[in-house]
Specification:
This protein has a single domain, classed as Arc Repressor Mutant, subunit A (Orthogonal Bundle). Helix content is 44%, strand content 17%.
């Protein structure tokens, strides 16, 4: 798949107004519907239900029953959903810089702003320029 097709697929799964916020709300652990709704100011219950079902179909969210009569569900991220955590952190940091709210994540011991780098775990080398010849998009 090309980079554009990969991005198009990603946006098809998580590219609406609420999805990243739902995933972000579940990064701390499973939540019941009401608990999740409280963290998402302004979302209508029917929209939250629709998004959760969509994320469940895509394998991002897992619904676990905690009551059988009536059926009540708790929602948790799957392994695939937890993979979005780093991307959400980067997007949040970018948004913070754009709005002037914050500098983004900092190193706890010295306070320096952290940088994101692509890294090859096999070669143990950073790929400093993601658009350069050293990086191929499969």
């Amino acid at each position: 798949m090309s980079r554009r097709r990969n991005l198009a697929h990603t946006l098809a799964v998580i590219g609406d107004r609420w999805t990243l916020q739902i995933v972000s709300g579940l990064l701390d652990g499973p939540k019941r519907f009401g608990e999740l709704a409280e963290t998402l100011t302004g979302i209508a219950p029917n929209v939250l239900t629709t998004r959760l079902r969509q994320l469940e179909r895509e394998g991002v969210v897992v619904a676990v029953p905690y009551s059988h009569r009536p059926v009540r569900l708790a929602y948790a991220l799957s392994d695939t959903g937890r993979e979005l955590g780093d991307a959400i952190s980067l997007l949040s940091a970018w948004g913070a810089r754009q709005t002037g709210d914050a500098e983004g994540p900092v190193h706890e011991s010295c306070g320096t702003a952290l940088e994101t780098r692509l890294y090859c775990p096999t070669c143990e080398q950073p790929a400093d320029e993601p658009h350069a010849e050293t990086v191929s998009w499969i």
